[in-house]
Amino acid sequence: MISEGRQPSHPFNSTLETGIRAVMLLEAFYPRQCDLIEMTWLDHLVVHTADLDGEDVPPSLHPDLPNRTGELFVRRQLMEKSLRIMQQVHLVDVVETDLGVTFVASEDAPTYLDLLQSDYSMALKERARWIAQRFAGMATVEIKAVIEAKIGRWTAEFRADHAPTGSSA
User: What pTM does this model have?
Assistant: First the structure.
């Protein structure tokens, strides 16, 4: 029973789960630094790999629900909170550049990720490596083009419309 005024706990796509996925993605992409928008796109793709074409595409880990393209709007705020938590526990480093704030896996990330051995964690690591092989050599604009083609232009362009005001990680 949920007490009045208290939100129910949802471990699926929680801040913690999203943070762990972020660490997996950043570790797979290391030493590349990714900004918040890239992390949001990659987080979507790592669990919805079937959104991408090709013979080698692994099956999606999360269900293909109708209207899930709107997930990116929700995912961005969740990803921002998740990255902050992962920074606080020293699994993600924040780098301020001339172009803005980016994120990179910390030196502690590989050791932590080695501890995650469940079937789901192993499948997620495999997909994070697959995503990194596919996108690591691409510029942000190229990744955006893939997102626009596969998921939709309006979801890829939410960056400018929903950019945080005065936020820093």
Answer: 0.82
